[in-house]
Amino acid sequence: MTQSNSELVRPGVSGGLADVVRARFLLKLLVRKELKVRYRGSVLGILWSYVKPGVQFVVFYVALGVFLGLEQSPTNKSGLPNYAIYLFSGIVLINFFTEALGNASRSIVGNGGLIKKIYLPRQLFPVASVWVSAVHFFPQLLILLVACLFSGWHPSLLQVAAAVVGFIIVALLATGLGLLFGAANVYFRDSENFVDMLLMVATWASPVMYSWTMVQAKLGEAWFFIYQLNPITVAVETFHYAFWLPTTDGSAGIPPNLLSIWIPVAVVISAAVLLWGQLTFRRLEGRFAQEL
Amino acid sequence: MTTAIEVKGINKQFVLRRSRSIKEAFVWLIQGRKGDLSEKFHALKGVDLEVKQGETVALLGFNGSGKSTLLKHISGVMIPDSGTVRTRGRVAGLIEVGAGFHHDLSGRDNVFLNGAILGMTEDQINERFQSIVDFAEIGQFIDTEVKFYSSGMYLRLAFSVAVHTDPEVFLVDEILAVGDEPFQKKCIAKIQELAAEGKTLVVVSHDLDLVSRICSRGVLLDHGEVRFDGPIDDAVTKMRGQ
Predict the structure, then answer these.
(1) Does domain B3-32+40-241 have CATH number 3.40.1410.10?
(2) Chain A partners within 8 Å of B73 (Cβ)
(3) Strands B200-204, B169-173: parallel, antiparallel or unpaired by DSSP?
(4) Could you tell me the residue ranges of all domains in chain B?
(5) What is the ipTM of this complex?
(6) How far apart are CA B237 and CA B241, in angstroms?
(7) Does A11 reside within a domain?
(8) Which residues of A are less than 8 Å from B124 in CB distance?
């Protein structure tokens, strides 16, 4: 029978990200759907999630490491030791960010058919996109770990913890920007193109391919400070600190104050971006149904 | 009787955008926001509606009269510009059946996905799964991807999931033309059964004979305003007379 003891409530009022936690069963199904549908009809299936970063890695390694001399070798003393690990640990993280933000920005428009007809917490879609990217990220991380172990990896607990925080920084940032650009994309489709551009810059604006010392040497302290404000830069540095540094003799070093200042700063910036994205999303979502 | 749906003086304007480009918006901004960038369309004008629990209400009106827009406000998909909408209990829409279906998933996956989208919990879906499949008459095709379904099978499964969500308030928008005639009869019987169980129903349909069989009250909308609100037969007569 019907419940008559419940209160009259206003429909369609969103509780923000708290709704996502409440609808976690639906989130789970949406993630599972994405994973099933992504590589439908392809022979390699989910293997594409390995092949693409694998090829990307080889191209960058040969071009930058070998041709441009970033790899340290007996004839090239100034390069980075174990450049392959250095490069790959950055690439996996930046790939996670690229995929998460790219898909999250398109998720609202992509699910427009549903959003127009049925009320459900719309934050689910960007969050599900980030989640799916995380699922694709972990197998790559596994490959990185195997490569690290072969290179004599001996991390400390602190280094592993730093990598976890680095991952969280990127996940928060991708969710925040994904909510922001996903909502903006409903009104201006320019948003997704802007994100594509942003992602291209993001790959090069953090020390994925090159060393942070080069930035410091060329730009000087003041600009290096600004460079370090980018949470992705800090997150990539934590991955280098966790995966690459323990495979070398440790002489290369990490940026000064990484653990004491920069990691907390990056966490705060990412959380602020998430809050901003969330507030913008809530302000804009009321008119999604009519704008899509 | 308690109120199930309370709509108080809601207004809704749609912005008919001439352009979506940033360039135009920018030019408009630096010219000091002169003129209106967009035209407005008044979809709902001060609509009041109160539906008691267990009532069966038909929203009638010609295309563009604001019926579906009103339904979307009740379901929460749209938020009114002014006025308030309040509902009691869970509201589920049989609005455009199959909106949440994904072609590349099997029937089984789609039942779970769509059930969850319509607000069912995992346990509820597990419990009602067999009943959903039986009602849809899908049988062994449940593990086939829905893109291989005939359009009738597709609609039957979607309708079946929707009627099994068991909410307090049902919103039904033009979906009574589902499948072949036997199934259509089954759907209508199911909807009448829900009404008999004391569920609140709000139906939008152009099939006047059908709504007068299902509903007891008719609300006639015209250009976003309520023109008539009363017994279904009077509403239908008025609608036909227009």
Answers:
(1) no
(2) 11-12
(3) parallel
(4) 3-32+40-241
(5) 0.83
(6) 6
(7) no
(8) none
